[in-house]
Design a protein that fits this description.
By secondary structure, this protein is α/β, with parallel strands linked by helices. The chain folds into three domains: about 80 residues, Orthogonal Bundle (Arc Repressor Mutant, subunit A), CATH 1.10.10.10; about 150 residues, no CATH class; about 100 residues, no CATH class. The chain has 22 helices and nine strands. Strands 7-6-9-8 form a four-stranded mixed β-sheet. A three-stranded antiparallel β-sheet has the order 1-3-2. Strand 2 and strand 3 form a beta hairpin. Helix 15 packs antiparallel against helix 17.
Length: about 450
Amino acid sequence: MRYQSSGALEALFPSRSRRAVLDALFGPDGAPISKSELARRSRMTQRAISVEVDGLERSGLVRVEVVGTADVVRPNASHPSAGPLRALLASARPGPEPNERAAGVRHGLAALGAPLAEGPAPRPVDPPSALVAGLDAARRDAEVLRVLPALVARLASEIDWVRVAELARAAKRKAELGLVLELAADLAALPWLRDVAAPLRDGRRRVPRFVPETAGEAERALAARHPQGVAERWGFRLNLREEDFRAALRAAPPCPPPPSAPGVGARAALEEALRALDASGVGPSEVTLLGDAALALRTGSVSSLPSLEILPALAPAALAALAPVLERHPFLATLAPASPDGTCAPLAWMERRIQVAVPRLERTRLLVPEPHDWAILRAERALATDLDAVEAHHRREPLRLVILVSRYLEAVGGSPEAERRLRPGFLALVERLFGPAGRERVVAGVPAEAPAGAGPAPARPG
């Protein structure tokens, strides 16, 4: 959880870590929680959380109990300030919940033609306001960041950029707007957008910010693997590649967007693509999906740009059979097929694949990786979008850290080269799902699995 708060709470409690602790314990959904789980949810270090908890414990507002290997923090309901504090936290949460707000931003961007699978907003959208709302959402949502340059390129000659810049300044998002404008200028060959971006530049920023926000040091280190270029000029670090932005640009519909895209459900579009491949008679008899499509078909969850990473690689005739479906649903991004031996030995994860039933498939047997194997496959690339996708699955069907570590060790297989390739992304994934304490346990090689949110590893992952 990335903590959201009102201005009143920020004024009363300037410390973000204190707001996170108070909300978790005394907010509308308050309940006892371990320090490690609280650090994971609030995306802060366990040390920062411990400092706040220690202060609250000295005041008598909370009690800390040791349960197994976890420090569980419980609100002290009998404290004289507990009732007023609950009332304050409840009253300071007006408006829609964070997930609802995020969905509203996505729908607004989709209505303008962004290649997002949520479908357009039911109400008219003000383009400048929707774009600036997208800049704010991109701080937490890698998929929104990924599609924004494509949307800017699509709206380049239609939108009032003076008004967009004014709104961005008011929202303190002018650097984000400059970044997206310059990315669009480079990717879509629209050099005049750099002139729009130039007045937004602010030379005062000295320390780069990570966008989307990261869960810890391991995830921040992943950004160093990619050339930063434009991002660095605007004071940012991105864990995304240029090709990810180009894929969104290819998926963006022309003006105006086709009526069927992207309002049709992402799962329905995925099934339509698979049925087209099956009916063509030129596709393989057995298909393994490795991308986000695997998650969508198995659990119903889907990212904004569901990727059809298919094994084996499709022949030109099979790709031609898919072309009409991709034209109807341009938000359905296709990425290059991944190699099965890029991470695990083929017989390791491929023997654990799960068959998925799709109605009206007659010739093709469809398989997806077991969820822990799928997470390891995502961890090797470990882009912000990959980590977001695994985190979304983890919220629906929690992964077990002890199994993840076992699959990691299986994938590395004692190879220094495999360890060098996979370890940074794996540690970032663990920190994203289980918090800093989970990562520390994995690195330390704690042999027993711990409860609720900070499961340890059965062996040291290198």
